[in-house]
Amino acid sequence: MNTEEIKRVKQRYNIVGNSDGLNRALDVALQVAPTDLSVLIFGESGVGKEIIPRVIHDNSPRKRERYFAINCGSIPEGTIDSELFGHEKGSFTGAIGESEGYFGVANKGTIFLDEVGELPLATQARLLRVLETGEYIRVGGQKIMKTDVRIVAATNVNMQKAISEGRFREDLYYRLNTIPIQMPSLRERGQDIILLFRLFALQMAEKYRLPKITLTEEAKQIMLKYKWPGNVRQLKNITEQMSVLSQNREIDAKTLLQFIPQDIESTQLATIGGGGSHSYESEREMVFKILYEMRGSISDLKREMNSMRKQLDEAHNLTGAAYGGQITSFDSAATALTPVGTQSPSPIANIEEAEAEEIREPETLNLSHIGRQMLEKALERNGGNRKKAAQELGISDRTLYRRIKQYGLDKDKQDEE
Question: Which regions in the chain score pLDDT beneath 50?
Fold first, then answer.
């Protein structure tokens, strides 16, 4: 390990720390820089992975050429191929001209693909071809393009797990992972935590002309024991908060605990726990589950409302026919139950549809005693002719027969005979 060279790099890029893990990562970056080998940087979010590809590029033969840092997770899936590999005029809506894409513009230079684990599978296949042959085809084009680009990638996901779940191509992983570099998490860097705190406190003091904050020995021990799930980014945010909000310039343990979680052993962010056996890999799966459960409840409610509306309509037909259409309360109730944006069907015009629904839907509304009297009087006026009685009441023969059976009028007829 070239200590002097690593020291020079730290000074140039304002890198603070002297932990073995950090020095090892910088040493590997300097050794691989003169080559064209692909590099894959591993590390948690917020550890500073983006500094390594910059070190590699600036110490390589390509240092006078272009350098592009691309966050693969921030580009929409529908446009990422066009962003990376370019497109032809008219290849899709909005493609008013040709585009070279990053691989065309960065020819002879270096491309840093941050969050490479978020690439869609189709884009992964295109990237694999670039790594193997240096060839690619623009979106909507047919001509094979050539490029000479050094690729450095970084990820904060478990690549082996992503491969086993089919989210990342195994062949692409081994192409990218020619030279692996592991960036250590902040909790693994020991005294670097205190050094970084001093740097961030000094920067805030100079920028906003504030008295610089310092730590008591007890506060330093809490800093060293805390697991820093957000790594360097979290440490910087907390230092800035204390610089602005703390009344005392010497931060003791009590003050420090107001800015970091009480559980100093925790390394996880808050998660949703229901105590069940289900685990959600993404927010999308959770939303789909909620919508699926809501759909069932809405369908049940709709069926109940339709059943009630049809029964109210039928009751209105019977009572209205007997009393010259003077009873309107059933019709009003049915209209009130009709969903917004729909029109309550005419009881007489849709009576056949109502009958078909009644076969499928259980009856939950008992007609009043007045319904039996109406049927009896209608049959008496028509000399027992059921067809004429049905026409008088404005209902079908089938409905009339069912009501006769429901009220037991057929049994009364047999008893009289």
Answer: 264-280, 326-368
Question: Which of 352, 311, 312 is closest to 331 using CA atoms?
Answer: 312
User: Residue 389 has what pLDDT?
Assistant: 82
Residue 402 tokens, joined: 């069912």
Q: For residue 99, what is the DSSP state? A: B
Cα dihedral sign for 170, 176, 178, 179?
negative
Q: How far apart are alpha carbons 38 and 53 in whole angstroms?
A: 11
* pLDDT value of position 5: 93
CA 335 vs. chain centroid, Å, equals 40
pLDDT for 190: 95
Distance (Å, whole) CA 376 – CA 74: 76
- Write the single-letter amino acid at 106: A
- Residue 150's CB: how many other CB atoms inside 10 A? 24
pLDDT for 409 equals 75
Residue-by-residue DSSP string for 111-142 = EEEETGGG--HHHHHHHHHHHHHSEEE-BT--
Element (H, E) at 152: strand 150-155
pLDDT at 322: 52
> Residue 336 is encoded by which pair of tokens?
């009130």
